[in-house]
Amino acid sequence: MHKVSIFDTTLRDGEQAPGFSMGVDEKIKMAIQLEKLNVDVIEAGFPISSEGDFNAVAEISRKVKGPEIAGLARASEKDIARAWEALKNSPHPRIHTFIATSPIHMKYKLKMEPDEVYERAIKAVKFARKFTDNIEFSAEDATRSEPEFLIRILNGVIKAGARIVNIPDTVGYTTPEEFSKLILFIKSRIKDAVISVHCHNDLGLASANSLAAIKSGARQVECTINGIGERAGNAALEEIVMALKTRKRSFQCTTEIDTTQLYPTSRLLSSITGVEVQPNKAIVGKNAFAHEAGIHQDGILKKQSTYEIMKPADIGLPSNSLVLGKHSGRHAFRTRINALGYEFTRPQLNTLFAKFKRLADKKKEIYDADLEELITEEFYRVNQMYHFESANFAGGSDMIPVATVQIKINKKSYKEVGYGDGAVDAVYNAIKKMTKKNCRLVHFHISSITKGSDAQGKVTVQIEEDGKEATGQSTHTDIVIASARAFVQALNRLDMKNRLR
User: Fold this and answer.
1) What is the structure's pLDDT at 368?
2) What is the location of CATH 3.20.20.70 in the chain?
3) CA distance linking residue 184 with residue 213, whole number of Å
4) What CATH superfamily classification does 386-500 receive?
């Protein structure tokens, strides 16, 4: 079994994409998570490109001790010296230098003859060797380069001291079959260096091209979390790693990635950049382990491998998701009802299922709160225990927030004063005093459902007590009132669960 090194360039190539820029602290936070993921190399940035990038590479070099830390540099002494200045405190520094080798890049971008490009590459690698023997050289736009010139320059930089030679598909032009042949050709004509690949996704083939290269002998893959990067992005780290793990016999290769950190790493990147992963993104998308079709749900419940080739736990997800919608069947519906803690007779389930189907025709997706509402409407015939009546609150920068809340408990009104860190906290503390509840606020979310300064706000809360959870929702132009109503609704649902179970 061959080891494939994972070279993560999320913080360099990934960050160059519009909308994905990160500050120094955010880069450090992401680098620490990449260390938990156990990547082999973190390309932390392009030190000469900005003071911020230089500082990020320098800080990551100081704080991250496990993986190699790479800094990108053009084939110039100024770039390389700046990269080394940022990398020098890393226990495992790598200088990654590059120059374009395709006719179109040499002629129009570099305005250099092939011999000049060759000499520049050799000179750059020799200069980098003054600082470290861990040198990687990239032949930019390699897949559109003349094969013989590519071999000439690769052998030249290896002789000059490069340990890794990278073959980038810079513009996402190649196909798996073509790339496989190119890697086999290069492998047959060079020695004493690791072959690396760096594929872009312009034709949607970045991961496929990378995997084809691995089959042909590449032993390092450059990729990014969630596949972010210039234009259509890079090969997605999670796709390559899980393909190698899931199809180990086919590839005869492995990585040292802790795959249980894939989903947490993906979520961290989304939270830092504010860019969510598309729902149908392979491995880490919201729908990657979600099933709505009744036939699929029934199969999954009987035997997980009927419709899943990986286990959710392998990537750090606690479980798959049976999405309830108009395509869902009785088996999935009953399983979700039971998971919520309810047991009903077959006639009761049939009644609920019919109501569920009518609701599913109106809504794209049915959530647990919707099911709770159906159950309440159908079976909870007694009066609700708690009713919100009023709330008054005061606060400011110079006083502790205080709230006076009045609610009915079993038709009798109670009033209580509460203090807290803010108006909502004060209201909730007053309500908990009156109800004698020791529930924990698990989730609190506010969203605007109309526009303007008088917009209605929707508050969603989730509470937990003794292992049982309940959700409440309310809308109001005053967000504190909406919060109070949502909390009381959640308390009623918690009470309902205790009565029905």
Assistant:
1) 65
2) 3-273
3) 8
4) Alpha-isopropylmalate synthase LeuA, regulatory domain (3.30.160.270)
Q: What is the structure's pLDDT at 300?
A: 46
- CATH 3.30.160.270 in the chain: give the residue spans: 386-500
Query: What 3-state DSSP class applies to 187?
Result: helix
The count of C-alpha atoms lying within 13 angstroms of the C-alpha of 453, restricted to the half-sphere facing its C-beta, is 0
For the chain, give the number of residues: 501
Give the largest CA-CA distance in the chain.
92
Kindly report, residue by residue over 30-81, the tens digit of the pLDDT: 999 999 999 999 999 999 999 999 999 999 999 999 999 999 999 999 999 9
- Topology of the domain covering 3-273: TIM Barrel (3.20.20)
> Tokens 């909308």, residue?
19
Contact 150, 113 (CB under 8 A): no
Residues 6+ apart with CB under 8 A from 392: 403, 404, 405
Which single residue is written with the structure tokens 């890697």? 183
Radius of gyration of the chain (CA): 29
Please, which contacts does 308-314 make with residues 24 or more away whose CB atoms are closer than 8 Å?
309/246, 310/242, 310/245, 310/246, 310/283, 313/260, 314/242, 314/245, 314/259, 314/260
| CB contact at 8 A, 242 and 212 | no
Contact 8, 43 (CB under 8 A): yes
Q: Each residue of 413-430: pLDDT tens digit?
A: 999 999 999 999 999 999
> What is the pairing mode between strands 93-100 and 194-199?
unpaired
Identify the residue whose tokens are 């990378």.
Answer: 210
pLDDT, one tens digit per residue, over 420-464 is 999 999 999 999 999 998 888 888 888 765 455 545 677 888 898
- CA–CA gap between residue 37 and residue 262 (Å, rounded): 7
pLDDT at 466 over 90: no
For the stretch 396-408, pLDDT in tens is: 878 899 999 999 9
Helix axes 237-246, 262-273, angle to 10 degrees: 170
C-alpha to C-alpha distance for 290 and 307, rounded to whole angstroms:
10
Phi, psi of 457 (to 5 degrees): -105, 140
What's the pLDDT band for 294 if we cut at 50, 70, 90? Answer: low
**Euclidean distance between CA atoms 355 and 375, whole angstroms:** 10
- DSSP reduced 3-state for 269: helix
Which distant-in-sequence residues (6+ apart) come within 8 Å of 101 by Cβ? 117, 139, 140, 141, 142, 145, 149, 150, 153
Q: Report the pLDDT value the prediction gives residue 382, as an integer from 0 to 100.
A: 45
